[in-house]
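Sequence, please.
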């Protein structure tokens, strides 16, 4: 219950940002949210029966159930539905009634502890994990989640991560998120925020203006923080922000191919040759120089773990028609 009480306190006191408040309200109107709400109320009703709060709280619970049922019907008709203004008002009404219980001395002592924890979180040391070119790493988080960090990528998070599951990513990573319905897992990549409970997904953010999120299992919410555009992804779907249209576009994706890179398999499909250059540079820790005209071909290939760069270039050489030479960590392509 501690996690739920902490979030409820933060919500009621206005210390929860807009995006997090929307997610919290969405959770309240799920079956798990209803159970958490009823459990919290019942716990303190037992302690405060003699103080005359029973009828007020019982009324709140009953109305909450009715509202929850109506909301569930509405949400089933629109999978991307988010609680609107009416829901915000309703949540405020719930908060006003339940705050009578929350002001009980025993309950406030728990909040005082939470506030201290919050102050500690703000002062907590930031952990930074980074990989250079040609490097990949596997990171086991304190909540049980696993993050695979690709080459030329950086991940940062609070040392108190279990209490505040937020990471910031530059580059690419694959996430296997441990389930925690009261503490969503958030990944921030520039203006894009991805929120998950328990799921597996890949984020490619080498180019901040073209962040791609691909879902292998579970469900995630992807939201653009500036224009508030958001989409839900189901397994087999991906999204990337389209600057020209200002929207997140949902596209199909092969779930098996999402994680090939973390298994050491170099895979690309219909990738423009200019975009293939930085991929090869990161993968093999080399610098590639083009002498002549940059090829504009689209390339597809799959190379097993620890495949030599020379073999990759020979395949591309045969299909595109250029020649190359390798001098240490320098590659020259003649076209």
């Amino acid at each position: 219950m501690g996690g739920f009480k902490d979030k409820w306190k933060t919500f009621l006191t206005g210390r929860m940002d807009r995006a997090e408040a929307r997610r919290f309200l969405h959770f309240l109107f799920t079956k798990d949210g209803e159970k958490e709400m009823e459990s919290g109320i019942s716990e303190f009703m037992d302690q405060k029966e003699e103080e005359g709060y029973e009828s007020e709280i019982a009324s709140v619970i009953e109305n909450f159930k009715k509202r929850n049922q109506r909301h569930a019907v509405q949400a089933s008709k629109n999978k991307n539905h988010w609680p609107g203004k009416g829901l915000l008002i309703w949540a405020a009404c719930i908060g006003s009634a339940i705050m009578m219980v929350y002001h009980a001395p025993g309950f406030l002592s728990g909040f005082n502890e939470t506030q201290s924890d919050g102050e500690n979180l703000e002062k907590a040391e930031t952990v930074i994990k980074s990989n250079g070119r040609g490097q990949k790493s596997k990171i086991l988080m304190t909540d049980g989640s696993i993050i695979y960090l690709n080459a030329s990528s950086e991940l940062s998070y609070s040392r108190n991560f279990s209490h505040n599951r937020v990471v910031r990513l530059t580059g690419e990573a694959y996430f296997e998120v441990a389930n925690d319905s009261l503490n969503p897992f958030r990944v921030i990549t520039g203006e894009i925020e991805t929120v998950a409970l328990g799921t597996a997904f890949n984020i490619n953010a080498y180019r901040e203006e073209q962040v791609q999120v691909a879902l292998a299992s579970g469900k995630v919410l992807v939201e653009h923080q500036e224009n508030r555009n958001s989409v839900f992804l189901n397994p087999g779907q991906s999204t990337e922000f389209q600057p020209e249209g200002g929207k997140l576009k949902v596209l199909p994706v092969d779930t098996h191919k999402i994680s090939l890179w973390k298994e050491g398999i170099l895979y690309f499909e219909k990738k423009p040759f200019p975009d293939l250059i930085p991929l090869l540079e990161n993968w093999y820790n080399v610098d590639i120089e083009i002498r002549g005209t940059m090829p504009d071909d689209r390339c597809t290939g799959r190379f097993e773990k620890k495949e030599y760069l020379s073999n990759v270039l020979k395949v591309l050489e045969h299909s595109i028609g250029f020649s190359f030479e390798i001098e240490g960590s320098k590659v020259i392509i003649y076209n």
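Residues 2-121 form one domain.
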